[in-house]
Every structure is written in structure tokens, then in C-alpha cells.
Design a protein that fits this description.
This protein is mostly helical and 498 residues long. The chain has one domain. The chain is 57% helix and 0% strand. It contains 20 helices and no strands. The longest helix is centred in the N-terminal third of the chain and has 32 residues.
């Protein structure tokens, strides 16, 4: 390319990314200015749509024409930090989960097990206050968070008791750790490090972590670290890291199927050893250490894409159909994990992880917006637009806040999952065999280097084709029953809040 053409392309790139950054910053500033996002959900979703479009343009550009690593990466990370700082001081109004973290930490510091008593139990009446307790959902439920999470809650409660801002700052620390790990992972794979923009500027990441302070920042960071370790051939370390993530939230265990080659016994043993060590601290609790996890898994339902479709299809079977609709997607996920584990030599960790996480998002009966955070770092490695779209579209489930009852409208369901199904179908039609087994997106973008062999002597895939980056505008889905003040891991989807 002639020098003047290269210079013009570089200027165009800075204009596109700069314009997208201004739009994103303006959208986040306006969100912060709204105050209570639950009460002003329509305005919030309008701003999120704007942010999603700006993000989609930036992501598409950076995948097709990665900017120079030096200044480009610094600008991307710097802008991402600014976006987070805009929402960091705001109160978490889209979800009440953070207040449950504060409650559990309060009990932990006092030496009271949150697995033993729900917040409304008379035994913990002395811990109730006017700031945290009224914001709790499901006060008749014991905690669902594993021991690693409880250790974090208690540690932060000792440093800054009942301070939502302090907890959000810690979450932001894990969020930025994920970003740093992702840059290192991209370098190890031979991908342009500037593809980290797909995580750094993602509006869902910024809203759910800097805005709502969700705990998922920890298992997401552990997952990225584990996949980077597996790429370098350090599979036992990868297993241990997944165990550490599962000690905070259980879902990283699914990625064992992606990293367990070539030493499956060592990898699984390392994960279980770390997870077991976390639970050992609560050995005296017996089975009560599970808290209300069984109740959550058995009864909560929100935005379950496949489940909702099966419920309509099997509705004529009554309660048996409802049970089947809940179990069949989970059975399909188990089959997918088994297939990925058995056929592990056909694809490298990042590819296998993408399909495992994508399958997880479709199979689980609860898909709250922040559950989709898990797939976002993988999109920076494999920018497949259907999954990128879903990761933005899931935010429209917040439309429940302005419905007369706690139910997600049908148009949101269609907008959330329709383009995903269409996009995956189109990709499968173009590459029917390689789509499923080998390549996620063949080709190499301009400026990308060839993937270097990992420490294990394998490549972790080819970079995606030009233009395969996600396009993001929100949308969403689900079903429910009368009103709830805010979403949460322990906030009723089908049931009213208590």
C-alpha cells in the first residue's frame, strides 16, 4: 500500500474509533445521570442501544483493520478505563446482587454462616439494618454463593464494611485483570492485541461490572487465565485456575472439557483439589454448605432460550413437559461437553471453550444479562458476530422493568435469539464441517500475524475472517410473574420478589 494510502487508512481508523469512543463515553455518562436505572429502564435501554451500535462499529473496524499495537492498544485500554470510571460511582440499581454480597460478608466477619440462616431468620435479626437488608431479594433463601465467594465477601467487609463502592472497585480490579490477561493471551495466540477492544469497550461488561458490581468478574478472570495457561501447554495450572474460579461461581468447571488434554486426570484433580480446599473451610456445615443452591437450580427461571421454546412445544404434557423442558437443554449441554472432551484433539482450547460457553448460555434456565459476560473475552479471540450480537442483545431483558407484570415481551425474545439462530445457521451453511469441528472463522485480518505454536506445540486456531466481528445492538428474552424490584442471581424470574 502506498504511504499516502496507509496514512489515510490510519487517520480513518482513528476517526472511527475516536467517534465510537465519544459515543460510548456519552452513553455511559448519560446512564450515570439517569440515577435509578430500574425506574428509568426505557431511557437506559435507549442509551444501551446507542452504546451497542458504537461498540459494534468499533469492534468491526478493529477486527478488519487492527490499529498499531503501541498507541492503539494504549488508547483502547485508556478509553476502557475511562468508561468504567464513569459508572463506578453510581449506585447499582439494575440488580440487587451486590447487597447480598455485603450481607454475606457482614455475617462472615461476625462468624455466622450465611449457609445456615436466611436473612429473615430470627437468629440473624441483629444484623439487619435500613441500608442493606431492605434491598435483599429472597430474604427467605440462604446464600447460593460458594466458599471462595464468601472469603472474598468477608475480606472486603473487614476492609470496607457495607461499602458498595468499595466492592465495585474490587470488581473493577478483577475486570481489568481480565483485560490484561486477555492481551497476553492474544499475543500468545498471534492475534492482534488490539482485539482486546472487544472486551474492553463492551457495553455489557461496563454496565454489569463497573455499574452493578457483579461477582462474575472473578470467574471470568479465572477462565481467561486458565485458557491462556492451556494454550501454553500448562494444562494442570489451567485446571487449578478453573477450580479457583468455581470456588467463587461454579460454572468455570464446564471449561475442564476444553483444557483437560493431554493430562485429563491431572487437570481434573487440580480443579477438584482447589475447589475442595475452598469447601473444606465449611466442612462442619455438612450439606447445608450448599445453601439454597438446590432451590435456585430447581425453581428459578428467567430468559431461558431453549427452555422457553421447549415449554411451549411440550406444554400439552403439563408438569412433566415443564420438567422435560428444563432437563433436556442441560442434557444437551452435558452431551456437548462430552463431545468436546472426547474430540479434544480436533480443536484448541479457545475454540472448544467458545462452543461450551455458547451452549451453556442457551441451555441454562436462567440467562440474566451478566451471565453472558463469560463469552465476551472469547469473542476477542474468535470474533463471531452471532455470539457478539447475543452478548449485547441480552441486555434487553431489562425491558421487564417497565412491563405491567414480571415478564419479558415476545418481541424481545425474537430480537434476542432470532439473529443468533440465523447467524449461526448462515455460518454453518458456509462451512458445515469446519464450523463444527475445526475453524470458527477462516482467514487472517490485515495486519495480523500467523499464530505461533504454544508451549505444547499446537496452534490455537486461525484468526477470523475480515468482517467477522460482532455487531452490537441490544435485545433480549424470558418469562415471569408479578413484579420484582431488580434482577439478581437470587431475584425471582418467574416468582415475585419477597
Amino acid at each position: 500500500m502506498p504511504a499516502h494510502d496507509a496514512g489515510g487508512a490510519a487517520r480513518a481508523g482513528w476517526l472511527v474509533l475516536g467517534g465510537a469512543a465519544v459515543a460510548l463515553g456519552g452513553a455511559f455518562a448519560a446512564m450515570a445521570g439517569l440515577g435509578d436505572l430500574h425506574a428509568r429502564a426505557r431511557a437506559f435501554l435507549g442509551l444501551f442501544t446507542l452504546a451497542g451500535v458504537a461498540y459494534g462499529i468499533a469492534a468491526l473496524w478493529v477486527v478488519r483493520r487492527p490499529p498499531p499495537v503501541g498507541r492503539g492498544l494504549a488508547a483502547i485500554i485508556g478509553a476502557g478505563i475511562v468508561f468504567r470510571l464513569i459508572l463506578l460511582p453510581s449506585a447499582p440499581t439494575l440488580s440487587t446482587d451486590l447487597y447480598r454480597y455485603l450481607w454475606d460478608g457482614r455475617l462472615g466477619v461476625a462468624g455466622v454462616s450465611p449457609y445456615r440462616y436466611p436473612p429473615n431468620a430470627p437468629e440473624v435479626a441483629a444484623f439487619r439494618d435500613a441500608r442493606v437488608y431492605p434491598r435483599l431479594n429472597h430474604v427467605d433463601w440462604r446464600t447460593v454463593y460458594p466458599p471462595g465467594a464468601q472469603l472474598l465477601f468477608a475480606a472486603l467487609a473487614r476492609v470496607a464494611p457495607d461499602r458498595a463502592g468499595a466492592f465495585k472497585l474490587a470488581v473493577m480490579g478483577f475486570d481489568l485483570l481480565t483485560l490484561g490477561l486477555l492481551v497476553g493471551w492474544l499475543r500468545a495466540l498471534g492475534r492482534p492485541p488490539t482485539w482486546a477492544l472487544l472486551y474492553a469497550w463492551h457495553p455489557l461488561v461496563i454496565v454489569e461490572l463497573a455499574g452493578s458490581g457483579h461477582l462474575d468478574a472473578v470467574p471470568v478472570a479465572a477462565s481467561v487465565a486458565a485458557l491462556w495457561a492451556a494454550t501454553r501447554g500448562r494444562s494442570t495450572l489451567a485446571g487449578a485456575l478453573l477450580g479457583a474460579g468455581a470456588a467463587v461461581k461454579l460454572y468455570p468447571l464446564l471449561l475442564l472439557a476444553a483444557v483437560w488434554r493431554p493430562r485429563p486426570v491431572r487437570v481434573v484433580a487440580a480443579a477438584l483439589a482447589v475447589l475442595g480446599a475452598a469447601y473444606a473451610g465449611y466442612a462442619g456445615e455438612g450439606w447445608t454448605v450448599l445453601g439454597s443452591l438446590g432451590r435456585y437450580l430447581g425453581h428459578e427461571e428467567f430468559n431461558g432460550g431453549v427452555r422457553a421454546g421447549l415449554e411451549r412445544l411440550l406444554g400439552w404434557m403439563g408438569s412433566s413437559g415443564a420438567v422435560a423442558a428444563r432437563l433436556l437443554p442441560l442434557g444437551g449441554l452435558a452431551a456437548l461437553a462430552a463431545a468436546v472432551a472426547i474430540a479434544g484433539r480436533r480443536g484448541e482450547p479457545s475454540r472448544r471453550a467458545l462452543w461450551l460457553v455458547g451452549g451453556y448460555l442457551l441451555a441454562i434456565p436462567n440467562l440474566f444479562p451478566w451471565y453472558a459476560l463469560w463469552i465476551v473475552p472469547l469473542l476477542a479471540v474468535h470474533p463471531l458476530w452471532p455470539w457478539g450480537y447475543l452478548s449485547c442483545a441480552v441486555a434487553l431483558t431489562y425491558a421487564v422493568f417497565y412491563q405491567p407484570v414480571w415478564a419479558i415481551p415476545g418481541w424481545v425474545v425474537a430480537a434476542e435469539f432470532g439473529p443468533l439462530v440465523l447467524g449461526l445457521g448462515l455460518l454453518a451453511g458456509r462451512h458445515p464441517v469446519s464450523f463444527a469441528l475445526r475453524r470458527l472463522a477462516p482467514g487472517r485480518p490485515r495486519g495480523a500475524r500467523a499464530a505461533r505454536p504454544s508451549a505444547a506445540g499446537v496452534r490455537d486456531g486461525d484468526p477470523p475472517a475480515p468482517g467477522a466481528g460482532p455487531a452490537g445492538a441490544p435485545a433480549a428474552s424470558g418469562a415471569g410473574a408479578p413484579g420484582s424490584p431488580a434482577m439478581g442471581d437470587m431475584a425471582g424470574g418467574m416468582k415475585p420478589s419477597r
